[in-house]
Automatic annotation (TrEMBL):
Protein name: 3-oxoacid CoA-transferase, B subunit
Gene Ontology molecular-function annotations: butyrate-acetoacetate CoA-transferase activity
Protein family according to the UniProt entry: Belongs to the 3-oxoacid CoA-transferase subunit B family.
UniProt keyword terms in alphabetical order: Transferase
EC top class, as a word: transferase
Top-level taxon of the source organism: Bacteria
Listed EC numbers: 2.8.3.9
Transmembrane portions of the chain: none
Transferase listed as a keyword: yes
SMART domains the record matches: CoA_trans (SM00882)
Amino acid sequence: MELDKNQVREVIAKRVALELKDGDVVNLGIGLPTMVPNYLKPDVHVMLQSENGMIGMGGAPAAGEEDPLWINAGGGAITAVPEAATFDSATSFGIIRGGHVDVSILGALQVDEAGDLANWIIPGKLAPGMGGAMDLLVGTRKVILAMTHTAKGKAKILKKCTLPLTAAGQVDLIITELCVIEVRKGQGLYVTEIRDGVTREEIEAATEATLHYVDDVKPMRQ
């Protein structure tokens, strides 16, 4: 079944949410990753960390109730949960670099067979820099990519990234609207789940990288 843009984002966000455990400290990249908390199970409560200086980030405020002093790392308006803590960005990056963030959920322009990620610059467009993504990739215990499988029909899961890298060899899991892929260090990419109605042939046609399949590939959980 062909999915529209909103359905694609929903499928990915729902599946990513299943990777989070109660009590996790989680950093969300901009865009699709910010949808993930909407699909957490009722018994799973996570603490959202923002690299500009917060743990305990809440959802977006109601229209008209935005406070310019309360923003996330992307400049979007936020709220805070009751147990939130705020601090300077140096402390925030100390938390990240010290390995205290359990999971980072990021988007991707390209990812490759070695778990290299490129997600900060588009050729021909002005980019302000990679922000905290480099630190998050290296400092976080688990890195999940929440990404569409292709962009304008072109593969994003490649044999080797062609764009400037954000970090090398740090991606653990890739979740797209087609499947779930584990990055196994030194072994390559292993498909563990496939969305109902999607074939291996369709996945491989949309992927440049070499894919392996675990013995017991399961339907994609939602």
